[in-house]
Each structure stands twice: as structure tokens, then as C-alpha cells.
Amino acid sequence: MGEMTEAITSAAPSKARRAAPIGPGRLLSWTLFIFGVLYFALPLIGMFEFSLRKRRGAYSFDAYTSVLGDPQFQATFSYSLIMSVVTIALGLLLVLPAALWVRIRLPAMRPVVEFITLLPLVIPVIVIAFGYLRMFNTSSFLPMTGTVMTTNLLLAFGYSTLALPYMYRAIDNGLRTLDVQTLTEAAQSLGAGWFTILFRIMLPNVFTAVLSGAFLTFSIVLGEYVFAALLDRPAFGPYMIWIGGNKAYEPAALAVIAFAITWGCMGLIQLAGRLAPHTRAAR
Amino acid sequence: MAFLEIANLQKSFGSAHVVKDFSLGIDKGEFVSLLGPSGCGKTTVLRMVAGFETPSAGGIHIDGRDVVALRPNARNIGMVFQAYALFPNLTVAQNVGFGLKVAGVGRSEADARVTEMLALIGLPDLGGRYPFQLSGGQQQRVALARALAVRPKVLLLDEPLSALDAKIRVSLRSEIREIQQRLGITTIFVTHDQEEALSMSDRIVVMNGGVAEQVGTPFDIYNRPQTRFVAGFVGTLNAFEAVVTDPASGAVTLDGTPMELGQPLSVPSGARIGIALRPEAAHLGRAPGREVVLRGRITEVHFMGSVIRVRAEVAGVALSLDTFNRADTPPPPVGSETEISVAARDFIVLGR
After folding, report:
1. ipTM
2. How do residues B293-323 score in pLDDT, each as one tens digit?
3. What is the pTM of this model?
4. CB A227: neighbour CB atoms within 10 A?
5. What is the pLDDT of residues A129-155, one digit of tens each?
6. Which of B85, B87, B82, B84 shows the shortest CA–CA distance to B160?
7. How close B199 comes to chain A (CA, Å)?
8. Contacts of B83 in chain A (CB under 8 A)
9. A72-277 belongs to which homologous superfamily?
10. Residue B176: exposed, middle, or buried by beta-carbon count in 10 A (0-12, 13-18, 19+)?
11. Helix H or strand E encompassing B158
12. Which among B71, B83, B98 has the least Cβ separation from residue A190?
């Protein structure tokens, strides 16, 4: 009986608290939230508004039509798009087997592999780029900068290195959600070889993770300047820098387009996760 | 040579000898259980047969062919895992048909085999579902169908029932046994659950410390354990110490009560010897044919429905005995003095 009375009295004040007007704590959280929203939204709104002002005295999409109609934009954007697809494929072929192998056979090597994949974040891109130029210039034993095709390939290798930390973490996190060891053994006992295990079992199950790694790679390739500039390739990064220094309204329009692409990609990842039938249980 | 022949198999991980000189021959269509506590090497033996571990020494022959050098995907074995290991991105039908697709079996034949397998496990309508939409028991049945679909030479079951709840476990073990017998497939079943091993197997291999302690039928293993470990691990056992009075005739005294065990003993007169009794061999009160009568005091009574498990202190030992429930005979009260009768030949002499 004593316990019951205590329970009733302790429940009463909480009811009173719920009914009370917004307290100072709540007010502070709302203020911080609104401040945060404004902090992120205002510059974007400002930039968008500025990008519409190309025509004097009226809002228009002139800057956008100018950017989108610019043949150089089209050329550099498509070049970087193709490069990002090549980079994603390279990264996937490099990282998926490596991450799987580390999980199944060399778990003790995990810290070493993680450290190696983090190196591109620590070593400045300019150092890697100069290293490449030194190793693969036309008078070296492997003159990859000698032709356009091999230079493109070299650039894709460089991009893959830059994307390594993101790609590895994304895929490794995806594999963490699976019982990789047992699934591999189950597939092997059913006669499957490594190719089947990688592409019919592992890849579909870490697809959303691969997609987020791919999207990060795509953003990196789209914005990368140093590699492309030093290897003198017509990529989107150098174009953005050039347009930023030479035009007024177009850079803002380009930034808004870049944001739209980014958000579009995020939406696609969400959509892919939602549409994959076997992942419905996870939510 | 047996259909599956394991000869002098050894496996070490660093300095740890997990499997020491393990040999076993399994006939075609036989169901053999490897039973033992954690770390006894039973799963390692199974994994060596599957090809997931390479033996440090010894040979494995399946249907006359040495498989030690073969990769797991070339051994034609079916395996069922404790964690089901169904591919989450494939439907039930695709999971079952996975091995057939890998083997390049034609579509119509594969579809027919999948339908046949789903009927075999009693889930003919669930082909379109994904693994996450199934219960644990259903998932494990699909895993069994997947392993059987490729018509393997040997079926390996690695504690397939351990992750399931008790009721499903009991029903699934009879289902597995029935399917195994119907297909006549040679099977190795790894378990630490003696009840599973006793109820399902043609033969049981009791393993301890990387060696096979005893190989025999469930009846033999339970009733004639050859080592102290087997006697203690399989079933409940009441162990006593008796004093040998005549080794040749097997005469001993237990707490002053003389009895003849009916077998010659290998220890000298006056020495102490370990003997043991199964709970069902002891009888509350006197009974015809049970000539040894021991006095004891009831310490615990557990009413379990059809069976009543009674604990009594007898000869300084807490003795467990099982008696069937009878509506007209209530169990004895705790603390009461009682007589317990036993047939001397029911005592198990504990060896090494």
C-alpha cells in the first residue's frame, strides 16, 4: 500500500510538468534549432537569390541557361561523370574483395588496412600528384602521361586513391551487418567460387553501402582540382575554378546545380534502400 | 573402405592440438552424430570434411576419393549451419536453387528440383518469400532444402538446432531424421545436446579433448559407456564409490551393503572402485528383481508431469531417481526416510 501511494505521488508532478507552458530549457533548444536552420539555410537562399539576378531588375534563370548551355560545362561535366564511373568501378573492384578478404581470412590485419585506407586523408593531394608525375612521366619506366588514354587512367587511379577512405569504410560497414564468414562458407559448400560469392552474394547485400561509397566518390571526382589540373585533363573541378574567377552569377548557379545533384544522389540512396526487398526488415 | 572414411585426422592451431588422431568410417546412408562439449574438436572435424579447414595430418575419403586437396566447392557436400546462413538478398526459391544455378543445371530441371525440395520440407508455398519473412524453424528447413537440392554425397549439419526454441527443436529433429532416412543420405551431425544425438543417430561418436572417446549406437553409448567421461557426459549419472571384495566375481560393498556387479573387476580386493547408476535404474521402495536395497532420506522432489524426479541422500551421495507419475500415489514428502531398490547388474562400472 505504501508503495502504491508513493507511485501515485511521484506520477503526479510529471503530469503537471507536461501541462506546463514552454520552459526555459525548451525555449533554448528551439532557439538553437532555429539558429542552426538559419545558419545553413540563409547562405543557400542568398546564393540562390543571387544566382537569379543576372538579368538587371528582374529574377531570371539566365545564369543557369548560360551555364548549362556552355559547351565547356557540358564537356567537362561529362568528362568528370565518365571518370567518376570508372573510379567507382575501380574502387569497387579494389575494395570489395580486399574488405571481404580481411574480414574472412586476415582479421588481424584490419588495423593495418584501415590505416592504409586513411593515408589519402593525411597525405596532401599535391604530394600524391607530384609522386605520380615523377613515377609515370614520359621519361620514366612506365610513361603513363605519354598518351591521353593512359593519362586518363592515371587520373582514375588518383581519384580511386582519394576515394579509398570513403569507399572502404562504406563497404566495410556494409559487410559488418552480414555474417560474412558463414555466408561465404554456405556459398562455397553449394559449389560457388569467389566471383559468384563476391558479385551474387556480397555485392547485392551491401548495395546500399556501396551506393553511398559511390556517391561520395562521385562528389570527390566532381570537385577535385589538383590531379586534373596537374595532369592537364578537362575535368569539372578546374572548370569550376575557372568560372569562379571569370564570371559573376554563373558560379552561384553552378553551386546551386551542384547542391541539387548532391541532394538528388542522397535521395537515390534512400530510394534504393527502400526499394531493395530484402532490406525491408531492417527498418 | 567405408563410404566416408576419416583416417588419423589431426588438426593444430598454433600450439593447440584441437583434433588428435581421429578416425571414423561412415557407411552410405548412415546418420552419425559427433557429440561432445565445447572445444572437443567436433566442429573442427566437420569443417575439415567440408573443406573449410585443412588437416595438419590424416586423410578424408568420400566414395573412395581423397578430398583433402579439394576446395570446399569441389567436394559435393551439403552443409547446414547453426546460423541458417540463408542469402538475405535471395528469395526462398532462389536460395534453394542457388547451388543448382552455380552447377549450371537447366532452368526447368532446377525449378522442378526447387519445387520438390520445398515440398520435402513442407513449405511448398513460401518460395517467393525472403528469409527475413520466415521464422527460425522455417529458415533452417529452407537451409536444409538448399543443402539437399544439389544432391550432395554427404550432408553435414553443424549444430543446426541450437539457435531454435525448445519446441521447434524437438519437432525439427524428427523431421530432419525422417528426410535423411527417406533420401538415404550419409550424414554427419555435430551437437553438444545428448538428447538430439541419442534420438536421431544410427551411431554416436562421443568426443573429448580432440579424440573419439567412444563410438557406438545410442543404446550402447547410454547403457555401456566405456569411459568415465562418456558415462558422465551422456545422460544423468549417480556416481558412488564401492569397495571391492572379490574382483573375480565382481563382488563389492556399497555403504556396507554387499552386491555382485556380474562382471570381473580389474582392481585388487579391498580397493575402491567407481560405480554409477542411471536415475531410471533406481526404484523408490522395494521391487521384485531389484535385490539391492539402500536406505536414504528424500531431499528434493521435482514434479515434472509424467515423471517425478526425486533426490535422496544415499551412501553419502545425492542420488537422483526418476519415477513415473501415478495419480493414486503421491510423491514422498521431503525429509522422509525411504528405501531405494536397485538391480546390481544395472550399476555401470566406471573405467578410466
Report:
1. 0.84
2. 988 999 999 998 898 999 999 888 889 998 8
3. 0.80
4. 26
5. 888 888 888 888 888 888 888 899 999
6. B82
7. 27
8. 179, 182
9. MetI-like (1.10.3720.10)
10. buried
11. strand B154-158
12. B98
